Amino acid sequence: MLDSFRLVHYLRFFAGALVVIWIFVQFGGTGDRHDQYADLFRQFRDQRKVFISDFLNHDVSGPYVGDGLSDLCATKKWTPGLILTCDAVPGGMADVKNGILTCIRIAIEMGAEVILPDIMIRSTMDLAVIAPHDSGPRRGQPLSHFFDREYLFNTLGEFCPELKIHNSLNDFFDDPNVLEPVKMDIYKVPGVTIASNMGKSAGKLVQKGELLGEQIHAMLDKKSPPKNRKYPFRVDLRPTPSYMMPAFADAPPLRRHFGRMLRVRQDLRALAAAVLFNLQKAFDLQIDPRKGIDIDAFVGIELRTQNDPLRFPDYTIQASDALSYVIANNLSQVYLTEGATSDNITSFTERCRDFNVAVVTKEDLVEGADASKLASLSYDERFLVDYEVAIRAGLFTGHAQSSFAWSVGLRREFAFGEAGSSNSSHLNGTLRWHNQYSTLYGKNFVGDDLRRAIWP
User: Fold this and answer.
1) CA 120, 126, 128, 134 torsion-angle sign
2) Which tens digit of pLDDT belongs to each residue from 229-254?
3) Which end is more exposed in the chain, N or C (fewer Cβ atoms within 10 Å of the end residue's Cβ)?
4) E strand or H helix at 441, and its extent?
């Protein structure tokens, strides 16, 4: 009885000591000493949970920097009651992201309030059909289907408080005039000139995005003279182009960070963290989500051979380029993203094995609840998981026709590396763009408009 009493007493003492240590780690000490205590305490916690927590709390680019966004919003003239709505955005994760950002940017240029667009889900029967039943106003899933809505609203609220965001048209149930908007095709606005046409639903790149607000207001003033205009006054953008604004022309603080306001939704980021944790275990790597990337860690590769609206090079070309890249960089661990057929995944894995290169996919790295979660995701949601893993790879390669590859490459450039080059030839294959962290293959000028229009 006495021994049991002593055991309980010791356990209480030990638990209390741990609480004291935790409080000291969290609130006591500074600098190196604080870090040493924090690292010591972390050893007593579940390493998987610690890794996922670190992943969720540390962005590869560091905290969001909103100076460029604040400066942009401060220069605009805002009109209370002027409301922009945007048609649902179709396409892959990179296309949808840029389309939503385009809607936000047009609203800022107009000085308008905004109802953010939905996400149009591609056909599950044919992945090449990104806008099924495409007639009339597009309908889809809410923005939160892909992205962290709370993070977006908090970011805009902090750095662009002038921009008022409405949940939906239901906010105007007692304003019937909102139901009959002025319809706007951005390319038919007088004065708007086109730099290039990317075809399909991707859009056309305009020449001078900084003039867009002035041009739109001139058009609206003709259709509805300001002295007779009643507010709220709604303008409906249809369609919402994914690649329209010349993002490359933005000042660096804006270009580098504007796209980061759209962050992958939290549960998918947690799944990506679990994938990355298991990947480091499988390859015996040391990956710390709190720090930058280890260029010798693993290679992220995108092969696009599944049915797609765009025509990518044959599998043999893509696979040859990717394997040459891995061998040239003397690495032996590959993470293969979504995009390839199961037969091509098998073929690529077997071919890599001939060169002592190991290949894994998401499916190889999850089990239990994570495996069930992954199996429930759509094709494009799975790309969101891959995006979070790929931006943390040591190296990354894909094809320059892929908006996903450009989003990953440019995000990594802004986070880790210097400007890429379009005419380098130090590796086998036809290089389109590369820097020390990422390489995209493709013929001259392939994907150039994506590079110019993407906010990564």
Assistant:
1) negative
2) 999 999 999 999 999 999 999 999 99
3) N
4) strand 438-441
For 70, list phi and psi in degrees, rounded to 5. Answer: -60, -45
What CA–CA distance (Å, rounded) separates 376 from 43? 34
The pLDDT of residue 103 is 98
- Minimal CA–CA distance to 319: which of 354, 357, 358, 348? 348
Residue 246 included in any domain: yes
The verdict on 239 and 346 lying in the same domain is no
Q: What is the DSSP letter of 265?
A: P
CA distances, 401 to each of 126, 249, 393, 443 (Å): 20, 21, 20, 10
* Cα-to-chain-centroid distance, residue 256: 13
248 and 119 part of one domain: yes
- How far apart CA 58 and CA 48 sit, in angstroms, is 15
- Please choose, from the candidates 83, 76, 92, the residue with its C-alpha nearest in 3D space to the C-alpha of residue 131: 92
Residue whose C-alpha is closest to residue 456's, from 254, 294, 297: 254
Q: Could you give the CA distance from residue 373 to residue 367 in angstroms, rounded to a whole number? A: 9
Tell me which amino acid residue 289 is: P
| Domain assignment of residue 79, given as a range | 67-261
183 forms bridges with which residues in the sheet?
A: 236
Is 396 within a domain?
yes
How many domains is the chain built from? Answer: 3
**In 308-400, beta strands by DSSP E:** 333-336, 358-360, 395-399
Residue 59 inside a domain? The answer is no
For 115, 232, 271, 310, 407, the CA distances from 112, given in Å and listed in that order, are 10, 11, 36, 34, 28
Write phi, then psi, for 241 (nearest 5 degrees). Answer: -75, 145
Give the predicted TM-score (pTM) of the model: 0.88
DSSP 8-state code for residue 261: G
Contact criterion met (CB below 8 Å) for 51 and 277: yes
Q: Indicate whether 49 belongs to any domain.
A: no
Give the CA count within 13 Å in the CB-facing half-sphere of 443: 3
Continuous H helices in 168-314: 212-223, 252-257, 266-283
Choose among 104, 89, 93, 103: nearest CA to 407.
93
pLDDT in tens, 142-188: 999 999 999 999 999 999 999 999 999 999 988 888 889 999 999 99
Q: Are 438 and 428 in contact (CB under 8 A)?
A: no
Q: Phi first, then psi: what are they for 114, rounded to 5°?
A: -145, 145
Which residue reads 């408009």 in tokens? 449
Q: Is residue 422 scored above 50 in pLDDT?
A: no
Q: Write down the residue that tokens 């000591």 correspond to.
A: 17
Residue whose pair of structure tokens reads 């380029």 in the numeric block: 321
Q: Are 333 and 357 in contact (CB under 8 A)?
A: yes
H/E stretch holding 432 reads strand 431-434
DSSP secondary structure letter of residue 76: S
Phi, psi of 433 (to 5 degrees): -160, 145
